[in-house]
C-alpha cells in the first residue's frame, strides 16, 4: 500500500489540532508507556517541590502540576506523575493533597528508578478517552486529507 507522506503529515497535524491538546496527547502516551513498561515495586520517601493548578491546552483546562523529588542511592530524581489517571477534574484536590514541602511516599521501579508515581493503580478513564480520541481522529483526518488531494 502506498502511503502519501504529505497526507500522513497533514493527518497528524489535523489530529493534534482537532484534539486541541497536543500536550495532553504526549502526556497520555507517556503515562501509558510508564504504566506498561514499569513496575513500581519499591517505595521511598520523597518531598513535594512544587504543587499548583495550571491552565493547559487550547481550552485552558485546569490541571495539576505536582513535582516531587526522591533519592535512590546517591542520585536524586524528580518526577511529576501523581497517578495514572490523568483526570483534570480533581486538579484542585490533588494540589491540596500534595502541598509543597510535604513528605510523601514515592513508588518507583527498582530496575528503573527514574520511573515513579505517588499513587499506584491502573490508568483511569482520562487516559483511555484521550487515546480513543486520537485513534479515531487520526484515521478519519488521514482519509479526509487523501480525499481532498484527489478532489481539488
Overview of this protein structure:
With 152 residues, this protein is α+β, with helices and mostly antiparallel strands. It has one domain. 42% of the residues lie in helices and 30% in strands. The chain has helices spanning 5-19, 22-37, 91-97, 125-150, and strands at residues 42-56, 61-72, 75-79, 103-109, 112-117. The chain has a five-stranded antiparallel sheet. Strand 2 (61-72) and strand 3 (75-79) form a beta hairpin. Helix 2 (22-37) crosses helix 4. The chain is elongated.
Q: Please list the strands of the largest sheet in the order they lie side by side.
A: 3-2-1-4-5
Total helix count? 4
Terminal CA distance reads: 22 Å
Largest sheet: 5 strands, antiparallel
Question: What is the arithmetic mean of pLDDT?
Answer: 79
Tell me, what's the shape? elongated
Number of strands: 5
Strand content: 25-35%
Poorly predicted regions: none
In total, the number of domains comes to 1
> Can you give the helix content as a percent range?
40-55%
Strand/helix succession: HHEEEHEEH
Structural class: alpha+beta
Query: How much is the radius of gyration in Å?
Result: 19 Å
Short description:
By secondary structure, the protein is of the alpha+beta class.
Q: What's the arrangement of secondary structure elements?
A:
Blueprint: H1 5-19, H2 22-37, E1 42-56, E2 61-72, E3 75-79, H3 91-97, E4 103-109, E5 112-117, H4 125-150
Antiparallel strand pairs: 1-2, 1-4, 2-3, 4-5
Helix pairs in contact: 1-4, 2-4
Descriptive tags:
152 residues, single chain, five-stranded antiparallel β-sheet, 42% helix, 5 strands, alpha+beta, 30% strand, 4 helices, elongated
